[in-house]
Amino acid sequence: MKKILILLIIVSLSLFSVGCKNTTASVNTNSKVAASSENKSNNNSTNKVSSNSNTPNNIKTQTKQEDLKYNNEGIPVLMYHSVKYEKDNPVRIPVEKFKEQMKYLKDNGYSTLSLDELYDFLENNKPIPKKSVVLTFDDGYKDNYENAYPILKEYGFKATIFMITSCIGTGEYLTLNQLKELQQNGIDIESHTVNHEKLNTLSYEKKLETLKTSKETLEKLLNKEVKYIAYPYGNYDDSVVRAAKASGYKLAVTTKGTWSDKADGILTLDRVHISGFSDLDNFKLRISTPDYNK
Ligand SMILES: [Zn+2]
Fold this sequence. Notes:
Layout: H1 2-13, E1 68-69, E2 77-80, H2 95-107, E3 111-112, H3 115-124, E4 128-129, E5 132-139, H4 142-155, E6 159-163, H5 176-184, E7 187-191, H6 204-222, E8 228-230, H7 238-246, E9 251-257, E10 269-273, H8 280-288
Parallel strand pairs: 2-5, 2-10, 3-5, 5-6, 6-7, 8-9, 9-10
Antiparallel strand pairs: 1-4
Helix pairs in contact: 2-4, 6-7
The protein binds zinc ion.
The site of zinc ion has 6 residues, from strand 5.
């Protein structure tokens, strides 16, 4: 009971409410919260085929060097939450708006990267297509499956969902079967803690507990390694970062609104907010301009 009360207090203090039961992403008055991240995974558009080849052996399937970038440059990691219209709620993006953004990415030759690819780019300097984005969704709303997934599938896009493990199969959150289907179809499921805790308010032991338990739960349920985490509310400090590392996470994202780059630190990567209120021009600005906030 005490635990529930504490959780309720945390929720009410939050920029948007989360708690599995009776939860809706609520309006946040802080413009920093509604964010989106998207990412495109189709590399085919950047593949070049030799035009004067006489044999199939001459077909070039490599992305041209000038179309690639290295980790001296950054990348937009887009942050979404719910993909479902709700009046006056920027944390929920209407499906039509989301579709318009994905179509823009597709039509304009963007690639979506998995978090494995993002990790390799930032840590190992493995080059990526210049027009790359990473699509992430926080909390694990059922509408990610019902509304976003069909669009992502249509365009062959990769994405990552950061799931609150205590919410699986409850209320408006994803069910285990949905998570399994998503994981098998290019939508990677990673951790967003057990109860959406404000991590820097917890003791180190409690930090480890929620970080490790959520990781192990997803690993058991989905039969795969969980290596990545989004800190709830983007909330972290040095101790949180140490605990994430000690729990076996290799990369973590925050909600700091700008492009991700090497200088962020691999366990404190920035993400780009895409509000349900922003129009396509604002979306284009955010995916084309690293310092779009300035
Ligand atoms: Zn969250």
